[in-house]
Hints:
globular; Aldehyde Dehydrogenase, Chain A, domain 2; Aldehyde Dehydrogenase, Chain A, domain 1; six-stranded mixed sheet; alpha/beta
Amino acid sequence: MPTATEINTLGFFVAGKWCVKGERVEILSPGTGEVAGVTFRADAARLEEAIAGAVRAFEKTRRMSGFERQRVLRAVARLVGEGREELARTLALEAGKPIKAARLEVERAAFTFDVAAEEAVRLGGEYLPLDWQAATAGRWGIVRRVPVGPIAAITPFNFPINLVAHKLAPAMAAGCTIVLKPAPQTPLTALRLARIIEEAGWPAGALSVLPLSNEDAGALVRDERIKLLSFTGSTAVGWHLKATAGKKRVLLELGGNAAVIVCADGNVPFAAERCAAGGFVYAGQTCISVQRIFVEASVFDAFTEELVGRVSQLKVGDVLDEGTDVGPLINDAAARRVEEWIGEALAGGARVLCGGTRSGSTVAPTVLIGTKPGMRVNCQEIFGPVVTLEKFTDFEAVLREVNRSDFGLQAGIFTRDFTKINKAFETLEVGGVMVGEVPTFRIDHMPYGGVKDSGIGREGVRYAMEEMTEMRLLTVNPAGL
């Protein structure tokens, strides 16, 4: 592991070697502009070295037994846990995430690797009877899953360790090699995780972590030696990458404008509490952040009072302050965009119940009422600390309103009526429906992903492993032996 003097300057990891050459890149902490750390930008030659190393190392990883892969993954989980404070501080500084949320993310990453360790020895198949016709009497087959090959992974800034873990852990459990491009805003945590994986004994060359320019990352996406691309990030970029990825398999985890439905028979105070958490965690910079809240008219006033009271109490401030709930957005440009969308909504007749102001890269937690469906705060992904609040009287109509979106990641509903729960589950065009919970809920072994512009494929370790493997069939005719 790096010493205290090495933490601030991290080389990148290419085919089992650390490199401190190339363009020097300073990573600035959101909100303060102070240098959180330094790394170096890899170039096209280093990318070629990484891909070639991944191809060579795949001959080893694809033959690793389940217990060998499990042993490495357990070691990674243990080392992540042991380095929790240092990792959380690095994450908080480079991502602008409040320290208590950063610690939770590190804990989730350790859990993700723990789950992968369990799944590494469960990568099985099935026995397939083939005697369904007289002509095939006595024949049988087996189906097993085999790793697809080297994987390209591209991750966003908002979860610098856990979304990286969701690429690396299932790939390692499946026996694939990986070339990872972390977000340019937050490469330091990913590089520290690479050190942990190296220390845990993952084969040399089987992992590279490269801060790359967009141009060089395009070459990674197009390279035919890469058999699968796993991308988490913006919708526009994701679909563009899919169009340029050639014949390789593509997994996309993209954006959302998640909705919550609060019915009169639901637990209204709890719903308000969860919406206040789900709408403003990491300043709303998560694709399943609560964005649109629909409340049944008879409980609208009670819910609104509860929600606004809770949101008004959220502490905005220094990310290293243990009491901070909401920190800055990733940069000033992101904050200005959110401010612009709020202003557009107000000009169109919406009202601010709390928040609505910006100071530098920090936007105060904001609740809007009186918005219209076509406003960007509703129909696009705001990716900031803003929720919209509207009332409804017709349950089926509100389901249609939730579906009037280009996105379909997750949705939440608060009701005790199983008929409504079933109707929502059958009707909502999303990857997951959370009952008695906000759409921001995720535990890292569940299937996670969306429909429409929210992407294709699923994460969650076992489900990602299915995407990162393919079926191979063996048939046996005993008569021919």
